[in-house]
Design a protein that fits this description.
The structure holds two protein chains of two kinds. Chain A is mainly beta. Chain A has helices spanning about 1-15, 135-140, 220-235; strands spanning about 20-25, 35-40, 50-55, 55, 70-75, 80-85, 90-95, 105-110, 115-120, 125-135, 150-155, 165-170, 175, 185-190, 195-200, 210-220, 255-260, 265-270. Residues about 1-20 and about 100-110 of chain B have low confidence and may be disordered. Classes of the chains: A mainly beta, B mainly beta.
Chain lengths: ~270, ~775
Amino acid sequence: MKNQSILYIGCLVFLSLACEKTIPLDPGQTPELYVVEGLITNENIRQQIKVSRSQGFNDAGVSAGVSDAQVVVTDDQGFMMEFTEAQPGVYKSKEAFAGEIGRTYTLTIEHNQELFTASEMMNTMGTIDTLLTQIDPEEEADPDEDGRFFDILVFMTEPQETENFYLVKFYRNGQLENFDGEDVYVFDDVAIGENLSALPGPVYYAEGDIAGMELYSLSRKAFRFYSDLNANINNDGGMFSSQPANVSTNLEGGAIGYFQVSALDKKEVTIQ
Amino acid sequence: MKRLLLCTLLLGVLGSTYAQNKATLSGYVRNAADGEVLLFANVFVQELQTGTTTNHYGFYSLTLPEGKYTLSISYLGYQSIEKRITLNGDTELNVDLQEGGQVLQEVVVSGKAEDEAVTEVAMSRIDLPIQQIKKLPALFGEPDVIKTIQVLPGVTSAGEGTSAYFVRGGSADQNLVLIDEAPVYDVSHLFGLFSVFNSDIIKSAELYKGGIPAKYGGRLSSLLEVTTKDGNDKKIEGAGGIGLMAARLSLEGPIQKEKASFIVSGRRSYADLIMKEIDDLDGTTVSFYDLNAKVNWRPNNKNRFFISAYDGRDIWKFSDDFKMGWGNTTATFRWNHLFNEKLFSNTTLVYSDFDYRLEDLDVADGFVWDANQREMSIKEDLTYFANPNLTLQMGYQGIYRRFSPGTISPNNEGSIFKETQLQKLGALDHGLYLGAEHKVNDRLSLQYGVRFSIFQNIGKGTIYEYEDRTDNVEVVVKDSTVYGSFENIKVFSNLEPRFNARYRLTPSSSVKFSYQRMAQYIHLISNSTVPIPFNTWAPSSPYLDPQLADQVALGYFQNFKNNTFEFSAEAFYKQAENVTEFADHANVFFNKHLATEFRQGDSESYGLELFVRKVKGPLQGFASYTLSKAVMDVPGINGDQEFVANHDRRHNLNLALTYALSDQWDVGTNFTFSSGRPITLPTGKFQFDNYQVDYFSGRNGYRLPDFHRLDLSVTYNSRKNKDRKFKRSMTAGIYNAYNRQNPYTIYTRKKQDDDGNIIGDGTEKEARLVYLFGIMPYFSWNFSF
């Protein structure tokens, strides 16, 4: 979790000497690829798989969904669930179901004679014990946004006997907060102890806000995907960070994106 | 090849044994003013029209038939002297040369014989003019040998403000940097804005791009040998100065007159002293320092000792909640011993340490992260001056290395972190070499040798066996083997032949050829274009093969106008295998299974380097042009397709000139032009959650715009300096005189305004060109006494 931020500090300091400007980029012909964004959790809900296409670098607008695909999820114990198109490109399971830790789920997507598959096991997980809130005095003195100077403090238990990877999502009044799609909160447990206490979250809240946190378990592969994603959207052109490169995927058949299978734990707290 | 080499060597030795009534003339050549030994000074026997040069320790030895001779001893920037001697029996002759002999003697361009460029056998070797570097324009007015190296022919950099350099298509980790024979692993201060070399302490700096003697090994592409001053053994002297970023002070003098001397030199940035006083910075400070010290002792002419040490660090603090630092510490003990007039020995003990530390001072996620690597080595070099036409060199170097790639510890009770350590790695490195400098006749001279290198990757350690070693995503460990302390994990060895030839066409022109094979057993763990100080090194191991490179070069050398101009043209071709690269998005920090991130492949580079240098008169300096190409082919990268190397530049043009207007005024200028750096830019994008993710079609498919820049400087030496002991000078300059916005890098982001607010619905992206330094004036004040 720390690696990226450390690099960042170095680069930022260096680049503070710099000036920059927007330049046109003409990438020429762009290959159109299928993009899959799938998520199965252990919550008993209608699970969702999105299928879309990649765009040109200069394109604006949300990419069009891929309609009329056959979407099926099975598991290693004979379970099978069909998905139906709820909106263009957005497929929901016909019925609500909850994934189970330790089971391996396989996604199959068929569209225009193309076949994409992905398999993923639901990894074990830590737990969010509690969320507390406190005023950040520095932020209170000079808040970025009026009234927003409350931190949430996360208390978590991390099982030491298993190899775990986590993705965290933060919410403010139900709204996903990741700095407009610039931050990815992903970490492994390599150097993490059993009890995480009073770890401040990245988002500031105002009094009365409802702060939410979701903790997703990831496979090693999914951890890699989100780490790659973070490096991809925050690359500095390869001067001090790794060479810009594509994000890894677990999809076979030529699609990109990820079929994520996660145990989920979530907590909310009202700021007061 | 090998057998032939040995035969030639043996013949040479035997030849010398049969010669009759010969005597050996030997000694040191020194600067009369301060006793500094002069490297590569010319000792010429007029009657025989033959001669030699002093070696790296200022020592020479000539074995001649007994008789009477006229010797002329010369060194550029010094008054040549002639000595008549009668040689009947082995004779010791130390020569002290007076500085001067030319107008504006302080503009010493380089320490060497006047026509050395043409006559020396070595090619692809440049000695850096330290005195001139001080008069050339420099970033923030801080003269820097690394920045000068970056503009030499055959050398490229990743951009301004960086201290990494790339030699003849090689990677940044393929350069061996030595300070008084001790390796320096990270030469950067402030992420490369400056290098660790304080110009006040440097006596000479030489860069070998090829034709590297058998004595040296361990890196594929180049050798930079920095030698520090010995210290004045006659009188106390000092020098210092203050520039925009740092202040310097050095002091040297005799401990025992003409027997022992010392020099200490320090440099420190002072921005932190000012930053501390600024409340808004909340305690954020940045600083660095360098400390060099050396003691020389010459009890007699048979023995010479020195101890040299260097310590330098960067210390960064971010508003009391984050700290980081890195630095090198080196120490060298050297003993030069003359067994007899013909056998010169150099025994060296070296210690080198590089380490970095990151420290988060927050309570909840507080941690200390330490990493370091240490090495200790012993080196024995013997030089045997068989006869004026044959000098033999042989030796051994043994290195013990310990790599500690990382330890994370919590720094308070409430921290989420637990004590975690990556396993340490060890190695023993051996090099045995035999080489000869062989004057075949007046026209043809050869330098040949072979280095036998052995590398032991040793325990203790655990080596994992992987289901698929290159699967860095789903790492599946099949098995593991535990090795005990000093137990061999894997042993590698290589024969590295080296060969240089010079054929003199006319007294002022020659052609040269060189071939070298180099082996490199340690690898920099970095996947960025410019290495950062938080990169560690790893030894060759079961999953990391030694890198090997073969290089041939052909050159034409000519001096014009009584050695006023030196011209050279060199063409090279270099091929390397097992060049170390990393998988896309490799995790090179704190990765237990780093082995799954290694990708090794081939690199190929070739080019033409033109170089002209003016070394005499009021106008001095050089111009160079390089046309080159560097490509890499690494399985697992860029879809297994060949790609241009990060440091590939088609054209590179550089000009560095100083002009002495009068005794008081010097002006200097740099101009540099190079093709843009290759860069990887997206061809498309896709949406995932609310992230806009770049999609790439290949590596290094684009180029940044061309880079060019002009710098100017002026140095004023106080008029009163002549009569004063305390001499002063001032330098002022302009970096990037015509304010060119030189491209540094390009990155992409969601389309946003200048305040960082997203424009539109957050689905649009934009490319941002970053450029570093606009026009920047600077000023520095220097003194000496």
